[in-house]
Write a sequence for this structure.
């Protein structure tokens, strides 16, 4: 009994536990089902509930409507927020839970309305209406909100938006709501396009902004923050006929302002037009709807030092021409008007819209243009210029490199741009043809040698002539600089200009050598004078001694002559000869020294000539000395012959003296043989007997007075010849002394 009761009790407990568990499990489910059936709905706080009404006594939505405002069947404008909501019976309402819309910090959200008033043909985006940033769908529709992409944007934050009416596109999510329509792909494409345009980020001009596009023609002197924004509006009325850019919309006195395109509704209300805008964005951050306006980052306009900027404006009112009637190359207008502005912009940075105006840089400092193939200046104005091909008067075909230094008056910069459009056209269409034609004309009237040797003169004339021509175009020609002409020759051929240069070098070298020789000759003359002075000083003692010796010799000669006329003449003649010889020898040595000095300066040729002069002088002196000695001895011998009366007696006397001095015995020790007369007749002849017989015959003839005469014709002729030779030698010596003295 006990066990049965225990078993029954255990079964009861188990059943109670099972029932309790069943109740615990089924109670929430039953409660939920009961609540659902009673129309109670719960919405999490991180989501919103979009009500879809399945049927209504008000009927269905009218044609073209997506969201019901008056209780019609369909998606309702009313939005369920987090918490419990009652009266939403499941057989009548379907609740779609969608996440809250979140826009990240510093980002932009874009809205597309599925319902609302239709857009007119001239409108691209839906107008801005009061609707709590699209969180009040009913107010959006009641206030005339328009379907399509909206002008208003969502800034950073969390929004409870009815996603049945609005599609919200953010950088990382597309909130399409409960409608999974075929336009989902379109929304994804819009998101990709906005990402490509950085449309989810605000427009930042300056530091930290997007990478700017730098014009290739702008000198690289702008920093990364030197940017501006070019705005293109895609909504509103089009620009007026004949205009290419929309005018700037300035703030109104009432305070209405579009705040640099951040308030599209105010922009359009103030008369803003679609298209590129004259107004630009400068440094700052701008939250601009990229569906309404796109922004292109461009570099500011830089006018460097040394330049001015001539503005060509494509926008503005038509202005009056300020150039006058004499200027026939176009009109110039005042600042702000359409056309070429008369006053150029000075150096600086300017936030100018490049689509509304163009700035032509005109250098105001001296700049160089090179007509040299392969060489380009940093300003790139001469990148298309090449060396000039010429044909000279003597048939050479050189290629002439040259440089041109120019200057443009800053006050005439606008006239230059008005004439030519820009500096490059000025160079290519005017300066290049004028310069090329001028130098070709010069080459045709000049030889190749003139181009090489008269470059300075050609440069001066070219500067003057081209300066006069360029004045007509408001250009100042500072200088024309000509380079070395070159020839274009095939490989292996001789350059004719280089060959001409070799000739010029040889000619120049010859002229330099000539000048060197002249200098050496002058130095030699100075050296000659120095050597003469040194030689005169060195030989002064010798000259003095020589003069004394000459005087002593002369005195001895006179003494001898006084003692004996014959001996005196001989001594005098000998003394004079010796003195003359020494004087001539001294003169010869002096001339030799001078000639040697001249030879050292004049090189080998002058040395040889000097040596020849010295040898000639020495020879002449020696010859004169020998002649004087000979003549002196001849004069003495003549005197002796006159004294003896017969030359044979004098000769016999000389022979006798020699015999007396001879060591050879004249008479043989044993025998002495004498010859007989010729043909045996016993008559003696001086020419046919021996020496002793001849001597004896002469002695006998002298004693007997036979065959001896006072003076023979031969003796007179000899005396005459001696006198003539003595006179001639004295005249030659005197003439040599005079020439040396000169």
């Amino acid at each position: 009994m006990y066990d049965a009761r225990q078993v029954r009790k255990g079964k009861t407990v188990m059943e109670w536990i099972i029932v309790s568990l069943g109740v615990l499990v089924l109670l929430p489910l039953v409660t939920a089902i009961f609540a659902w059936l009673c129309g109670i709905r719960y919405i999490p706080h991180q989501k919103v509930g979009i009500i879809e009404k399945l049927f209504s006594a008000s009927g269905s939505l009218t044609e073209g409507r997506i969201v019901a405002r008056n209780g019609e069947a369909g998606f309702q404008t009313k939005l369920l927020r987090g918490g419990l909501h009652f009266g939403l019976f499941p057989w009548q309402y379907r609740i779609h839970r969608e996440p809250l819309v979140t826009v990240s910090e510093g980002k932009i959200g874009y809205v597309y309305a599925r319902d609302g008033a239709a857009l007119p043909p001239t409108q691209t985006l839906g107008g801005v209406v009061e609707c709590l940033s699209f969180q009040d769908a009913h107010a959006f529709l009641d206030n005339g909100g328009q379907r399509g992409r909206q002008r208003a944007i969502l800034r950073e934050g969390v929004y409870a938006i009815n996603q049945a009416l609005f599609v919200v596109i953010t950088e990382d999510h597309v909130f399409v709501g409960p409608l999974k329509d075929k336009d989902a792909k379109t929304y994804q494409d819009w998101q990709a396009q906005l990402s490509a345009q950085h449309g989810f980020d605000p427009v930042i001009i300056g530091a930290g902004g997007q990478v700017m596009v730098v014009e290739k023609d702008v000198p690289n002197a702008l920093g990364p923050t030197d940017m501006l924004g070019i705005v293109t509006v895609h909504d509103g009325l089009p620009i007026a006929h004949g205009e290419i850019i929309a005018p700037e919309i300035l703030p109104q006195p009432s305070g209405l302002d579009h705040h640099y395109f951040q308030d599209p509704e105010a922009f359009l209300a103030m008369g803003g037009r679609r298209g590129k805008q004259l107004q630009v964005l400068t440094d700052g951050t701008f939250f601009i709807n990229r569906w309404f306006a796109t922004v292109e980052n461009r570099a500011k306009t830089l006018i460097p030092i040394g330049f001015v900027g001539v503005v060509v404006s494509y926008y503005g009112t038509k202005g009056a021409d300020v150039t006058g009637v004499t200027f026939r190359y176009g009109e110039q207008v005042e600042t702000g008007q359409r056309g070429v502005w008369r006053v150029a912009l000075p150096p600086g940075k300017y936030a100018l819209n490049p689509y509304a105006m163009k700035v032509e840089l005109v250098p105001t400092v001296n700049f160089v243009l090179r007509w040299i193939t392969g060489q380009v200046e940093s300003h790139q104005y001469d990148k298309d210029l090449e060396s000039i091909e010429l044909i000279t008067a003597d048939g050479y075909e050189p290629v002439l490199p040259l440089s041109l230094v120019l200057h443009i008056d800053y006050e005439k910069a606008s006239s230059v741009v008005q004439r030519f459009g820009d500096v490059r056209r000025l160079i290519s269409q005017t300066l290049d043809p004028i310069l090329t034609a001028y130098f070709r004309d010069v080459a045709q009237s000049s030889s190749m040698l003139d181009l090489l040797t008269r470059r300075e003169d050609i440069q001066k004339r070219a500067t003057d002539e081209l300066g006069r021509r360029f004045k007509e175009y408001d250009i100042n020609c500072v200088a024309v600089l000509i380079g070395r002409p070159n020839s274009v020759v095939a490989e292996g051929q001789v350059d004719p200009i280089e060959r001409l240069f070799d000739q010029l070098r040889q000619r120049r070298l010859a002229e330099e050598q000539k000048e060197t020789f002249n200098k050496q000759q002058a130095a030699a003359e100075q050296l000659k004078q120095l050597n003469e002075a040194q030689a005169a000083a060195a030989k002064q003692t010798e000259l003095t001694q020589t003069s004394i010796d000459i005087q002593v010799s002369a005195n001895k000669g006179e003494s001898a002559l006084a003692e004996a006329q014959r001996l005196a003449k001989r001594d005098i003649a000998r003394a004079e000869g010796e003195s003359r010889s020494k004087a001539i020898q001294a003169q010869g040595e002096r001339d030799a020294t001078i000639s040697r000095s001249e030879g050292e300066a004049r090189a080998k040729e002058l040395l040889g000539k000097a040596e020849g002069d010295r040898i000639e002088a020495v020879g002449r002196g020696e010859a004169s000395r020998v002649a004087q000695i000979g003549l002196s001895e001849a004069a003495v011998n003549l005197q002796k012959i006159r004294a003896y009366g017969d030359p044979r007696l004098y000769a016999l006397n000389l022979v006798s003296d020699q015999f007396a001095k001879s060591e050879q015995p004249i008479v043989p020790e044993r025998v002495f043989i004498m010859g007989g007369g010729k043909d045996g007749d016993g008559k003696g002849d001086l020419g046919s007997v021996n020496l002793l017989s001849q001597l004896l015959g002469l002695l006998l003839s002298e004693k007997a007075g036979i065959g001896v005469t006072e003076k023979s014709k031969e003796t007179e002729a000899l005396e005459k010849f001696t006198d003539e030779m003595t006179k001639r030698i004295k005249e030659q010596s005197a003439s040599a002394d005079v020439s040396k003295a000169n």
